Amino acid sequence: DAGITQSPRHKVTETGTPVTLRCHQTENHRYMYWYRQDPGHGLRLIHYSYGVKDTDKGEVSDGYSVSRSKTEDFLLTLESATSSQTSVYFCAISESPGSGYGYTFGSGTRLTVV
Amino acid sequence: GQQLNQSPQSMFIQEGEDVSMNCTSSSIFNTWLWYKQDPGEGPVLLIALYKAGELTSNGRLTAQFGITRKDSFLNISASIPSDVGIYFCAGQNTGNQFYFGTGTSLTVIP
Asked: Contacts of residue A106 in chain B, CB cutoff 8 Å?
């Protein structure tokens, strides 16, 4: 067990409401990532963090914001959820991506926007 | 973003058969990874490749880093029911992130 947990595991929300997903790690890894997984698209990067308060956008960042106030927590917020944001969201952590060791993933959050 | 194409998109095979899948990119990568995702779970790292031409095994799994550095291959020998899942490739160049393929869904028929 790599010590990464996501909450909630499942959520149904209405269009236009704000939603926050949480990723918590106990590995003290510097890098944290949020991906979304959709059929035919694989895993697409939303945002990532390379340290406390240091974040950057990925390829599908529109409509999402993130915050990282502590090493162990990385929050993903949908300010006003839309049906196109229905997806499975994965958090990942990495000690040092430049070393090529890859990521460790959480178990995912299935979000449905109705 | 980088485009990684995996093929085939899905496979239905009989238990005991061998499996081959590949991943191609329009760009050169320095690292290739292969992940497996079980239903309802996150992807788990299977094999990591760091050098062009490298061939690495993990039990019944064998992966290769293509010599052009734009492709990678994964083979599974003597498939078993627990091999069912989605297999993803991922590539990294000089940046701080990996790019993921679209996945190959594997179904093993007992």
From this structure: 42
Q: How far apart are CA B15 and CA B78, in angstroms?
A: 7
Hey, which residues 25-84 in chain A have their CB within 8 Å of chain B? 31, 33, 35, 40-45, 48, 50, 58-59
* Nearest-neighbour CA in chain A from B31: distance (Å): 6
Average pLDDT in chain A: 92
Q: Does B52 touch chain A (CB under 8 A)?
A: no
Per-residue pLDDT tens over the stretch A66-114: 999 999 999 999 999 999 999 999 999 998 766 567 789 999 999 999 9
Q: Produce one character per residue of B87-102: b if its CB has 16 or more CB atoms within 10 Å, e if not.
A: bbbbbbeeeebbbbbb
Q: Among B44, B45, B101, whose Cβ lies nearest the Cβ of A42?
A: B101
- Residue partners of A99: CB distance under 8 A and separation at least 6: none
